[in-house]
Amino acid sequence: MPESLSFGIDPITAHAWNKDRTKLAISPNSPEVHIYHFQRGEWKLEEILKEHDLKVTGIDWAPNTNRIVTCSADRNAYVWTQSEEKKWKPTLVLLRINRAATCVRWSPLENKFAVGSGARLISVCYFEKENDWWVSKHIKKPIRSTVTCLDWHPNDVLLAAGSTDFKVRVFSAYIKEIEDRPVSTSWGSKMPLGLMMAEFSNSTNGAGGWVHSVNFSSSGDRIAWVGHDSSISIADASKGMAVSVIRTDFLPFLACLWVSENRLIAAGHGCCPMLFEVNETGKVQFAGKLDASLKKETSGVSAMKKFQSLDRQARTETNDTSLGTLHQNAITSVCLHTGNKANATKFSTAGVDGLLAIWDFSNLESAMRGLKFN
Amino acid sequence: MIIPVLSYKYYQRSLQYKKNIKIQRFQLEYKSYNKMDVSRRKFRQEQYSSINYHHSEYERRGSFVAACSAFRKIDVDQYNEDNYKEDECGESQSPPSIEALKTVLRNAPISSRNQMVKDAALNVVMQVLLSMKSSQIEEAVNALDRDHLDILMKYIYRGFETPSEGSSGQLLAWHEKVHAVAGVGCIVRVLTDKKRV
């Protein structure tokens, strides 16, 4: 049974955990960011960060340096650092964009972060010590439309971006002021800033949809993305950029996350996290729903429910208005909770119903028979 | 108060009378038309349908004449009893097989920019879908693969847009069967796909 925390009725647009998972930053569909702290067995609201003017669209928490970066529809991003009195202080980041920012991600070494925006560009921002502020460099070249999602490669240089022009692109975000030359990877050897290393189209045969989420696997060789045409795709750089797509029967997914080198979780409008597996030949297959157990519990007390509905609403039919899944509305984001991308044991999902659920693989294993967890 | 009402009634009656006269005149002309030989008929047809004639009629009568001359453009020979041919296509054929459906979906002109080609293909697909028996639908849907199911769903929705006699009911049966096999994802792809069928 996944652990679930309710944060009211407002949708949760973004969430991020701190390093030891005792603190949680969420944005309840407003310009504020709420920080919750797990103390004495319950989650308490610790602080509200109020600096943005418009809705906060992305939050990311750097685990080692303990900094939070938030980006918002007001074309700004702030980096929050915790002072000695445990108060969070914002520092403005000059993104130089003229449209809303849509997503933000810290790089694996936390020396820079990337912001995707509706201005058809990605801002890669790093801290300049001489002037004591965050400056940005733009990646513009082949991007034709809003960038909706970002993810960093483990080597801290490559960046994958999904966009509403139905394409997923891998760029180099190498900033020579702050880091050394990167070694060559399966994506390419020369990596100047802004060079597009690979481009994948989400629209084979003309069927396409916006790319909602993109994710690098732990080795960095594989990249997964989900699109609005209910498809989930994998590209493998070590196999010559081979792409494997499945067009699923479910509602479109909004977020995806690798939990091992061969398995990934996708969740979205179907309100239920799904597990997908990549087999040896590189083909992606549906492995199972991670929320199947709950449906059985709701069908038990039907007689009671019938009389209840007759009493309250004067109707004899008992069609349930609640879904059989834990989340009652779309899941907007999926975050790693325990473990890393090579071997995750827990992950968290947040949705439009204001619920944040933490899913544990060891519990799910017993609920899903016939699946081998290696 | 009564007098205007009465006069209106008479006015209406007179309109009806005029209409009847027009119909009678047409029927008379038609009968005499039939007795002429073909070449003379065609010549007369062209004469009557020319613009000059209309103008002179208009001036002579001083009333609304133009509309009722449309009958002059009809080719009456095609309605001649001797020329009547039995309807060739349709009932004599057997209902289309699953192979026909597969062929028509495989050759669907999705990438074409020509709207006429797409409309023609739509008509063919509609004929196939509407003439297949309800018992065959499930078998046909199970025989198709995912891509073809997506294309079929697109045609079903396109068929809903232009309903004909009893078509929507049949299409709904198709929709239910395709949905049972391909799920909601199929419908989502109909909505998100830029390339319309």
Automatic annotation (TrEMBL), chain A:
One of its GO terms (molecular function) is actin filament binding. InterPro entries: ARPC1, WD40/YVTN_repeat-like_dom_sf, WD40_repeat_dom_sf, WD40_rpt. PROSITE patterns: WD_REPEATS_2 (PS50082), WD_REPEATS_REGION (PS50294). One of its GO terms (biological process) is Arp2/3 complex-mediated actin nucleation. It is found in: Cytoplasm, Cytoskeleton; Nucleus. WD repeats lie at residues 49-80. Keywords: Actin-binding, Cytoplasm, Cytoskeleton, Nucleus, Repeat, WD repeat. The keyword Transmembrane helix does not apply. GO terms for cellular component: Arp2/3 protein complex; nucleus. It comes from the Eukaryota. Functions as component of the Arp2/3 complex which is involved in regulation of actin polymerization and together with an activating nucleation-promoting factor (NPF) mediates the formation of branched actin networks. Belongs to the WD repeat ARPC1 family. This is Actin-related protein 2/3 complex subunit.
From TrEMBL, chain B:
It comes from Daphnia lumholtzi. Keywords: Cytoplasm, Cytoskeleton. It is found in: Cytoplasm, Cytoskeleton. Functions as component of the Arp2/3 complex which is involved in regulation of actin polymerization and together with an activating nucleation-promoting factor (NPF) mediates the formation of branched actin networks. Arp2/3 complex plays a critical role in the control of cell morphogenesis via the modulation of cell polarity development. The keyword Acetylation does not apply. Belongs to the ARPC5 family. GO terms for cellular component: Arp2/3 protein complex. This is Actin-related protein 2/3 complex subunit 5. GO terms for biological process: Arp2/3 complex-mediated actin nucleation; regulation of actin filament polymerization. Its main location: cytoplasm. InterPro entries: ARPC5 (IPR006789), ARPC5_sf (IPR036743). Pfam families: P16-Arc (PF04699).
